Write the structure tokens for this entry.
Amino acid sequence: MFHSTNVRKIAKYCRRTISTSRKCDKTPTRDDKGASLSDAQIEKKFLRNIGIIAHINAGKTTTTERILYHAGSTQTVGDVDKGNTITDYLIQERDRGITITSAAVTYKWKKHMINLIDTPGHVDFTIEVERSLSVLDGAVTLLDASAGIEAQTVTVWNQAARYNLANIIFLNKMDKPQADHMMCLKDLKVNLGIKVGLIQLPVKSANNRIDTVIDVINRRALSWPEPERDNGSSYLNQSLDEFQATTKKPDKKLLDEVERVRECLVNDLADSDEKLASHVIECDRIGQVSDEEIREALRRCVIKTEYCPVLLGSSFKYVGVQQLMDAINNYLPTPVEREEQILQRFGLNKKAITSSQQPCAFIFKIMHDKRLGALNYLRIFGGKINRMQSLKNLQTNKVEQIKRIFRPFADELTEIEKPVFKDDIVIVTGLSDSRTGDILVEQGFSKAEENSVESSRGEMELQAGEQPSPSGQVSMEEEAYEPSKAIAAARNRQPFLLLNNELLVPNIPRMEPVYFCTIESPSTSKQMKLEEALACLSREDPSFTYEVDTLGVGTIRGMGKLHLEIMRDRIMSEYGVDSILGPMQISYRETISGCAVEELKVNRLINGVRNRLSLKLYVRSLANSGAWNQKRLRLDCGPESTLSTMRADHRRAVETGVSRAMMHGPLLGYPMVDCDVLLLEFQANYRCGLALISSAASQCLMQAFSRCSPFLMEPIMLLEVVAPKAHNSTIVGDLSSTRRGVVISTQARSATDSIVVRAHVPLATLADYSEHLRILTSGRASFSMELHNYAAVSESERSNIVRI
Ligand code: GDP
Ligand code: MG
């Protein structure tokens, strides 16, 4: 969005002009809805931080595009099928018609300022969704009204629920002939575990086109007879009597239906809202409850996350988008209201959070702009932030200076000169060593131990640790290995953490890359540029990692094939380096059982210099630690130990050697996990070479590993397939007989006549699953998967796995 080339492209695509004709005077024009409001006028009660979430293809990007247009942020309407949208700004997104990175844009609508994030729906980018949700206060969940709930819908809904987001649902694609709002409503009631209810009804015109939406709360009909003329900007807003007179089609059934749905809504809300309940008692008939009372109760219930209103329309055909924008303003919480929610739900200390004046910001996204450098998207969780302010990065402990602050309005960055406050979402430049997921705090801030935020960098930590006896008689927990326990714990963890009882910060799980491949540039002259591109991309996306060996061959790791292919494409389009990817391979892991002490002595003459060193390492399995990426070296700093006076360069050399051995396990060279390394003894003469120390540490650790019965582990995915009932046995049969899958549940969905199959399946057997499922079900199924755990690979399977 902010690359000048992309801006030019947008300009090139922009051919349409806005029609200024207005059908109805009552309808506000695009220009008077707030695009001209200055920042200073925005009070907290008018601020919304929201996201659009859904299964891929439900219409998130299309809806975002229509919203930006109606808000006056854009002068033309982008179209994913033509590849000219604002939020799908990467060339890869436009070429493929999918959202890959979350895009944050700000728009203004009827006095409100809304920070909106369009999230990706593809499983390879789940972590991107997770990070976005952690900075939001509310969400719009989109459904394709002809498909109902799809596999990823449930996944993103559950993620949003973990972050306690208030939600409104928009049934999109109501223009499709198969669209069925009642089917969707049933599906939602059965599957989402929250009370939902329609607040609108659709009316189709004679040629079966949706052109009217009835607002059941105020009993008005909103019609778009010719949306193509002005991209749906103007619409008729009529009472039901006027509407029926205009259409010359008196329909008693429609009026009855409106009353029925309205009564249902009032009853449902009165169940959760005492104020409305007492008001209902005062009225003779439920129909007499006023619009205002209903809207207020609805807002309270949405914010308490006890109710979810369902709106409908068609973004593509411009029907119902302005009402969705109104609902965002009316029903989704302000950041202040949401704080109450988080506090209640997670039992946090109210005084601490609401009173914190300390600056604290979370980097939820980084993008590289050729002109401005790294653009860091921040949500401010405490205090205020100024330009030229220095803040400490909690993960690196380094001080970083913010240079400039911007707000993303469609495809333009508007610079902000004034300070920005708690609860806002902005972009800052000037940070040179921060990564997505890092937290920035005041320089003097030092976190209290009990609240420490885990480093998400996966770096080696060197610290004084427990003291085992040198003979290796360290007490070990002998429990059975159960990585799934740890993963379950990670999933159920608090989505927010309290730092020093003062600052509330997101607690994002780490995602382990499950695929890898080699990457090479065709010429050595481009090697530097390639490494630079890899460094930038891994800062943007922590689920993408890389390493380059001494021969210059790089290995990249990511969440899926699409993820890695997209990265290759981006290296080409954004950095001008054409790279070659090796075959995609699954990222296995290696681990050990038991423990061992290993000693190594070296005495060698190199170039006439005597190198003498001895070191002793202790390694043990950390089977129940749950961290499969544990890479720690600790020092044995007991009373008799000399390690506390160890030279810093020697210490770093040992660390380097240990980390190299951890990256390439003894069996097939896959990363080691779930083990703990302790340096017991170290001695080296003054002139001993650092490279020799590193390789001795590596070698010593490798020997220790091989004495601890190392074994291979493979990623097991939790797969969820949604398909018509008729395909149940084929899907289950395929998973269990040809894919080594274990089906854990099959659930019928009465509303849609479909089933949901959940299974644990080794990733190694899922390479062709997407195509295969399409063939099995004639394209009528959808699936999602996420890493469940790592499990030991059987002997028979091991022969299929190659050495790296
Ligand atoms: P996303 O993956 O959720 O961002 O979905 P997109 O916005 O990229 O839309 C996916 C496809 O659905 C595109 O081909 C859109 O043109 C189409 N689409 C989006 N909204 C509608 C709608 O309201 N009606 C119809 N018929 N198609 C739509
Ligand atoms: Mg999209």
User: Anything to note?
Assistant: DSSP finds 22 helices and 38 strands in the chain. The first strand starts at residue 47 and ends at 53. Residues 1-41, 449-487 have pLDDT under 50 and may be disordered. Residues 60-61, 88, 98-99 surround magnesium ion (ligand 2) (CB under 6 Å).
